[in-house]
Design a protein that fits this description.
By secondary structure, the protein is an alpha/beta fold. It has nine helices and twelve strands.
Length: 297
């Protein structure tokens, strides 16, 4: 089986390559070979490679920058998936598209179901919702694609909240962190496992068009910042823990509005994949252990 992987240098893409089954060939073009903001480039590379699957991890993920980069975020998050669906229709291949909890507005206080109406608050969420809609509306057969929504991706690499908090615990006496946004921190490693399970199952079974996957448990960014300090100190990655002060979203204004509650209901996906979600604190400890090992601390 041949797979075209976009976003291979990102958090999820890195883990997908790391967990690749032995009988699968992954082709992961860099940005010079595949420009996700160029519709024709997206179509041409799929025609050239002729993969059995496209795993689309590539995305414009700078939530605040997207508020001014409307065109670029729409091209990468919306029109690139549309281009992929055009070729999938021609070739009868498959698409696994990674999406986000930010397609919801966060105004409810219970986990979001797969079939709930999209209602994003900001441009990042709107661009990701656009990509989902293009796939849904343009595919000849809905069975040729799976949208996997996830949330609050964390890993030992790249630009993410965990590494930012490690640095701040090390450098500062106090940190102010938002405590009124609630979600499920999710290990990129666990998302990659779910991706491979989906591809394996779709060889013989039908799966729903949209699936949700995240780690177990819920947290605020404040909770996550506290946990990073506690576990990193326990692992001797840092010598001291900064005091973490809870603040409200209104205390820390950002260009993009974020959902207050974006927990995804993963029950159906867990049952279908026969995979029990790991609690986010356990995943966080594994991530920090890998960070320590990688950075020879």
């Amino acid at each position: 089986m041949k797979i075209l992987l976009t976003g291979s240098t990102g958090q999820i893409g890195h883990e997908i390559i790391k967990l690749k089954p032995i009988d699968i060939e992954i082709i992961s073009p860099d940005r010079n070979q595949l420009d996700l903001s160029n519709y024709d480039s997206c179509k041409e590379i799929v025609l050239k490679i002729n993969p059995d699957w496209i795993i689309n991890c590539g995305a414009y993920t700078a939530v605040d920058d997207a508020e001014k980069d409307i065109r670029l975020s729409n091209q990468i998050n919306g029109y690139a998936p549309k281009a992929f669906t055009e070729i999938i229709n021609e070739k009868n291949s498959n698409l696994l598209h990674i999406s986000t909890d930010f397609v919801f507005d966060g105004k409810q206080s219970f986990p979001y179901e797969e079939n709930q109406k999209r209602n994003p608050l900001g441009q990042y969420g709107r661009s990701k919702a656009l990509g989902e809609e293009f796939i849904e509306n343009n595919l000849n057969s809905i069975e040729n694609a799976t949208i996997l929504r996830t949330s609050w991706v964390i890993s030992p690499r790249g630009k993410n909240f965990i590494l930012t908090m490690l640095k701040l615990h090390n450098e500062r006496e106090e940190i102010n962190v938002v405590s009124d946004q609630i979600g499920s921190p999710t290990s990129a490693h666990e998302i990659a496992k779910a991706c491979w399970k989906i591809i394996e199952l779709k060889k013989k079974d039908k799966l729903p068009f949209i699936l949700h996957w995240s780690d177990a448990g819920v947290a605020s960014w404040f909770d996550l910042a506290v946990a990073v300090g506690e576990i990193a100190k326990e692992l001797k990655i840092i010598d001291k823990i900064a005091i973490v002060n809870p603040i409200t979203t209104s205390d820390y204004p950002t260009p993009a509005q974020r959902p207050k509650y974006s927990v995804l209901n993963t029950f159906n996906t867990s049952k279908l994949l026969k995979k029990t979600p790991t609690h986010w604190r356990k995943s966080l400890k594994e991530i920090l252990c890998e960070y320590k090992k990688t950075n020879h601390l």
